[in-house]
Amino acid sequence: MLLAKLLFRYLAPWLLKRFVQKRMKEFDGQFQNFEEENKGGQGRTYGDIRVDHIPQKEEPQKGNFDEEYVDFEEVNEDEQK
């Protein structure tokens, strides 16, 4: 029982701190790789925008005139009675 208390009090925080530090180093390394890959030596600075794909504009559809305009009048039900 006493040994378990000592382990949780001293060993667990140390292990957790060590685990977090390792993960931080991993993420930092990944971030550095990401920056190097995306910069690509093109002289871009922070905030520059790069567009990789510009979609083609769709032409408006021609000849499909099956719809009709229907004019309507509002009918007041009180006047009909």
Question: How would you describe this protein?
Answer:
This protein has helices at about 1-40, 75-80. It has about 80 residues and is mainly alpha-helical. The longest helix has about 40 residues, at about 1-40.
Per-chain topology:
Layout: H1 2-39, H2 77-80
Put the structure in a nutshell.
This protein has 81 residues and is an all-alpha fold.
pLDDT averaged residue by residue: 79
Stretches with pLDDT under 50, minimum 5 residues? none
Number of H- or I-type helical stretches? 2
Q: Structural class, judged by helices and strands?
A: mainly alpha
How many strands, which pairing sense, and closed or not: the largest β-sheet? Answer: none
* Rg (CA only): 34 Å
Q: What share of the residues lie within helices? A: 40-55%
Shape: elongated
Approximately what portion of the residues adopt beta-strand conformation? under 5%
Distance between the termini: 91 Å
